[in-house]
Amino acid sequence: MERRELVRWLVATAGLHALDSLAPTDLLALGREVHGSQQSTLRALSPHAARTVAAAADRILPDADVTVFIDKMLADWHTPVERERFLAGLPDLDTRCRARTGGGRDFIACGTADQVAVLTALDDEVTALRANSGPAANQHWFAMLKYLTVYGWCTSEPGMRSLGLYPMAGRYDGCAPL
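Predicted structure:
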């Protein structure tokens, strides 16, 4: 898959209104900028939400390390409505894990198998919603989490190295006059 195709796929599958109008090169530049300007203070996620996001993102894409990226995107790029939808959905992970384990453990305290089972069930729900409602499924909080995890990883240095895109080439005009 080529870089531009990957970026188009990311935008198409997420339906994030704030990012839809960006060209693929601008979307990559934004990702790099967000990674480069990360601070250690969380602004959108509570400590528990940050641990939940970290655990879920690690199950979606191992070693993604995108919690600070997701916090920054929620704080600076998403609308308040989108941010609240995302934050209101996160406790669903704890609720599902408690139901799965007999009421005792939150998502971050569950074992890998239980976490994966909960995330797979949510992914199946979003997939079914996508089949029935099309792009409206992208408004689901789990679709946002999955998108932000992949987008954050693809625009991080480890992700770009893994995809063979780092270091990013500069401009090349092969047919430019001297």
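Summary: Residues 14-18 have pLDDT under 50 and may be disordered.
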